[in-house]
């Protein structure tokens, strides 16, 4: 049937019988209730109790993998903290910076200055001393306690200036009427270990670890969101348990579980089904896995981590290569030259390999050196190399790092990993 005089049938689906609302699936959505994080909320409150008590602005670091509720819990705890401080007549100001977008002290200072002086515009190129002076002037005028929340603080890398200067600003006379504490949120459990001793001594921070959600916790979270997003009776009874189980086995990431549930609903909607079934979840898992890998590479890895991953990927698909630390580091240095990037030490590259393993992009197997004694590790990719190569190709700068033989290496690698049965079936 032709519609709207366009000469063809509309490609859009008819009435929506699957979803009630999709707003809760969006990343910026903060639920009214933070589920399955009661213990962490209590730890958080204890770490910040000095503020409503009027004893000072402490430094708190929050660690945990992606999707375990660190940011949402922080937002909710800060809401309670602001209310408590108000009731206690304690002056409190909170400033939040996403370091994923602002990856240096300078960019964070520029952002804070613009937040504190909305009528002005501090352009790129403003001298750092000017930014520091204006920020300190504004904070002293506001007075009281100031909490600077640095989300994804590990994106600052080895740039430690903020962590050293803010907590000691009052002690060294930069501030008279205000005291600054830092709340750092990080996906990298080793972030603190990589800080210099002077920063560790200055921070004296309290640490809170967020563990991955287990299957029961994910079922609770998914049920809460399902009631907000799906129409009554749409989900078959095995959808939420299966979604929770698959995600718990993989990562314990609630964000991934919600993406999986939403994608399963989208598939059912696209296919014209009135119910979301187990099969929809299994199809969705493949799609979400690919999308999640791309998101981690493009959004959560620093440029140096990307180069380490690229070097590892090329060695994995090279039949003559061996993805050991020494060979990864050697190829990494060559890639840095090709894309005109700074070269890190081998020790830092080892740290990045650990981070890539934490993100679920790499895994390492122990390799016995035999009569020579000792052991080494061989790294392999968790996902298909083609997904990683295609993702890097979307970045013009990184694409320059690939050798001309990369497509041929990929094809040969994929052929070599096909079983005899697959070859017979032409899979």
Automatic annotation (TrEMBL):
**A GO MF term:** ATP binding
Domain Cdc6 C-terminal, which positions? 309-392
Domain of life according to the entry: Archaea
Query: Signal sequence span per UniProt?
Result: none
Q: Gene3D superfamilies under this entry?
A: 1.10.8.60, P-loop containing nucleotide triphosphate hydrolases (3.40.50.300), Winged helix-like DNA-binding domain superfamily/Winged helix DNA-binding domain (1.10.10.10)
Among the GO biological process terms of this entry, one is: cell division
**InterPro entries assigned:** AAA+_ATPase, AAA_22, Cdc6_C, Cdc6_lid, ORC1/CDC6, Orc1/Cdc6_arc, P-loop_NTPase, WH-like_DNA-bd_sf
Which residues does the record give as ATP binding sites?
A: 68-72, 213
Q: Enumerate the spans annotated as AAA+ ATPase domain.
A: 56-205
Q: Which Pfam families match?
A: AAA_22, Cdc6_lid, WHD_Cdc6
Q: Which segments carry the region annotation Disordered? A: 1-24
What SUPFAM superfamilies has UniProt attached to this entry? P-loop containing nucleoside triphosphate hydrolases (SSF52540), Winged helix' DNA-binding domain (SSF46785)
Main role?
Involved in regulation of DNA replication.
Annotated protein name in UniProt: ORC1-type DNA replication protein
- Organism this protein belongs to: Halarchaeum nitratireducens
């Amino acid at each position: 049937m032709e519609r709207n005089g366009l000469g063809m049938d509309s490609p859009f689906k008819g009435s929506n019988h699957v979803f009630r609302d999709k707003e809760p699936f969006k990343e910026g959505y903060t639920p009214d209730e933070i589920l399955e994080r009661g213990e962490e909320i209590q730890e958080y409150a204890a770490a910040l109790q000095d503020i409503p008590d009027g004893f000072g602005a402490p430094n708190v670091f929050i660690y945990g993998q992606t999707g375990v509720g660190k940011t949402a819990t922080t937002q909710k705890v800060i809401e309670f903290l602001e209310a408590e401080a108000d009731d206690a007549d304690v002056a409190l100001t909170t400033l939040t910076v996403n370091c994923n977008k602002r990856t240096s002290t300078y960019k964070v200072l520029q952002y804070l200055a613009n937040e504190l002086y909305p009528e002005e515009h501090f352009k790129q190129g403003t001298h750092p001393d000017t930014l520091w002076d204006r920020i300190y002037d504004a904070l002293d005028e506001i007075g009281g306690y100031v909490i600077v929340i640095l989300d994804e603080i590990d994106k600052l890398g080895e740039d430690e200036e903020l962590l050293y200067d803010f907590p000691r600003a009052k002690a060294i006379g930069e501030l008279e009427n205000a005291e600054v504490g830092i709340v750092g949120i990080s996906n990298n459990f080793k972030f603190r270990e990589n800080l210099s001793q002077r920063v560790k001594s200055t921070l004296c921070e309290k640490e809170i670890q967020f563990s991955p959600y287990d299957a029961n916790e994910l079922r609770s979270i998914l049920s809460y969101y399902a009631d907000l997003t799906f129409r009554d009776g749409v989900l078959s009874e095995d959808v939420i348990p299966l979604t929770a189980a698959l995600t718990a086995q993989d990562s314990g990431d609630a964000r991934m579980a919600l993406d999986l549930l939403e994608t399963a609903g989208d598939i059912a909607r696209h296919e014209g089904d009135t119910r979301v079934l187990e099969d929809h979840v299994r199809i969705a898992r493949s799609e979400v896995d690919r999308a999640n890998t791309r998101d981690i590479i493009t959004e959560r890895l620093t440029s140096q981590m990307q180069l380490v991953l690229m070097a590892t990927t090329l060695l994995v698909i090279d039949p003559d290569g061996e993805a050991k630390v020494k060979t990864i580091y050697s190829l990494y240095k060559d890639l840095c030259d090709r894309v005109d990037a700074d070269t890190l030490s081998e020790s830092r590259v080892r740290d990045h390999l650990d981070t890539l393993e934490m993100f679920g992009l790499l895994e390492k197997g122990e390799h016995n050196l035999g009569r020579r004694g000792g052991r080494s590790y061989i790294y392999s990719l968790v996902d298909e190399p083609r997904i990683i190569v295609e993702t890097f190709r979307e970045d013009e700068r990184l694409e320059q790092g690939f050798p001309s033989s990369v497509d041929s290496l990929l094809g040969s690698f994929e052929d070599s990993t096909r079983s005899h049965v697959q070859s017979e079936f032409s899979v």
